[in-house]
Design goal:
By secondary structure, this protein is an alpha/beta fold. It is built from 13 helices and 8 strands. α7 (179-189) packs across α9. The chain is globular. The relative contact order is 0.16.
Length: 339
C-alpha cells in the first residue's frame, strides 16, 4: 500500500502519461455525440482508470475497494470483512471449492474470503497493475497456495464451461457495458446448480430523472468512479433473467441494515479519526492541495492533482447520493445456474 503521498503513481503509469490519461478519462464522459465512448471503449476506460486511481484507493481506503453497512461501534475494517463474509456465507463456501472473483482488484476481499471459508479463489481482473499487487499481497499473507489470478476481461474468461463451484463480484460489474453479458459469462463458468452472488451499484426508486440535482449526482458518480451508466435495481434483476439464471434472493443492504454508521460516512468524516482522515472530505482536500504543491516542484507527476480532483468529484457525489437515498452500492443478489 502506498504509505505516503510521495509514492502515488510511482509504479502504475509512466510519469509523462498521467495528465494525458486523466484528460482522456474526463473526455470519455462528454455527453456530446450519438455513441457513448464509455461503451465502445470500455476496455481502455477501465484499464486507464485503474492505472490512475489504484494507488489513491489504497492510500485513502485500504486493500478492499468497496463499501459496507456498519454497526455502531464497529470498526471500518471489521465492517468490510463482515460484508465479505456475508457473500461467503450466502454461497456456502467450503474448503476445496474453486471460486471465481470477478474484478478482484488488489485482492483484499478474496484474501478475507479464503481465510474465512477455506475455499480456493481465482481472482479475475483486466488490470495488470492490480494483479501484480494482488499476487504480491496474497503471497505476503501466506495464501498464495489457495489463490490463482487471471488477467482477462470478466466478459470473456479464459476458463472452460463449469470450471467453478461458485462465483462472486463485489461492486465491479458497474464497469460492464452489458450487464446480461457478464452475468451470462458468470453462468457459463458455473457448474450446474452453482451460485453467483454480487453487490451492485444501483439507482433507487427515489432517483428522479427530472431533477437536475439528482442527474448531476449520477453523472459525477460515473465520472469520478469510471463506471458505465448507473442502473436501477429492476434492470439488474432483468439481466439475471436474460442470462438464464434462477434469481434466488435480492435485497438492498442499505435499506435493511439496522441503524448505525452510514456506508458513506468515511467519505464525509466526523470528529477526529486519524485512521480515516485520508478518505474524509477534509483529508481528500488536503491530499489535493499537497499534490498541487508537489507537482510544482516535480516530486509527483504532472496530473496527479487532477486525478485527486476527479476522485473528489466522485466521492462527494457518492456521499450525497447516499444521503439522499437515491443511490446504493450494496444491492445484493444471489442467483443459481439451473443448467
Amino acid at each position: 500500500m502506498p504509505s505516503s503521498i510521495f509514492s502515488l503513481l510511482k509504479d502504475s503509469i509512466s510519469r509523462d502519461a498521467v495528465a494525458r490519461t486523466a484528460k482522456d478519462h474526463e473526455g470519455r464522459f462528454d455527453p456530446g455525440g450519438d455513441e457513448d465512448p464509455r461503451e465502445s471503449g470500455y476496455h481502455d476506460l477501465v484499464t486507464d482508470y485503474y492505472k490512475l486511481v489504484t494507488d489513491f484507493y489504497e492510500y485513502g481506503w485500504g486493500k478492499s475497494f468497496h463499501f459496507a453497512p456498519r454497526h455502531t461501534n464497529e470498526s471500518f475494517k471489521a465492517s468490510l470483512a463482515r460484508h465479505q463474509h456475508f457473500i461467503a456465507h450466502k454461497l456456502d463456501l467450503q474448503p476445496g471449492m474453486r471460486v471465481a472473483d470477478l474484478g478482484c482488484g488488489v485482492g483484499g476481499p478474496m484474501r478475507e474470503i479464503i481465510s474465512f471459508s477455506g475455499a480456493n479463489v481465482v481472482g479475475i481482473n483486466i488490470s495488470a497493475y492490480q494483479l501484480e499487487l494482488a499476487r504480491k499481497y496474497t503471497d505476503e499473507a501466506g495464501l498464495g497456495h489457495m489463490a490463482e489470478f487471471l488477467e482477462c476481461d470478466f466478459n470473456d474468461v479464459d476458463e472452460p464451461d463449469g470450471s467453478f463451484d461458485a462465483v462472486f463480484a463485489i461492486e465491479t460489474t458497474i464497469h460492464a457495458p452489458d450487464l446480461a453479458r457478464v452475468f451470462s459469462e458468470a453462468r457459463r463458468l458455473l457448474s450446474p446448480g452453482g451460485c453467483f452472488a454480487t453487490y451492485e451499484w444501483c439507482l433507487t426508486d427515489r432517483f428522479d430523472v427530472n431533477d437536475p440535482y439528482h442527474v448531476q449526482i449520477k453523472n459525477d458518480i460515473e465520472l469520478g468512479t469510471g463506471t458505465q451508466d448507473l442502473r436501477y435495481k429492476h434492470e439488474v434483476d432483468a439481466a439475471f433473467g436474460d442470462a438464464g439464471f434462477e434469481l434466488l434472493e435480492t435485497r438492498d443492504l442499505d435499506e435493511q441494515t439496522t441503524p448505525g454508521i452510514p456506508w458513506y460516512q468515511p467519505l464525509v468524516g466526523s470528529g477526529v479519526s486519524l485512521s480515516r482522515f485520508r478518505s474524509s472530505s477534509v483529508g481528500r482536500q488536503a491530499t489535493y492541495r499537497s499534490l498541487r504543491a508537489l507537482e510544482a516542484i516535480k516530486v509527483v507527476p504532472s496530473g496527479a492533482s487532477e486525478v485527486a480532483r476527479l476522485l473528489n468529484i466522485g466521492a462527494k457525489a457518492l456521499a450525497e447520493g447516499g444521503r439522499l437515498k437515491i443511490f446504493t452500492p450494496m444491492y445484493f443478489a444471489l442467483a443459481r445456474n439451473p443448467a
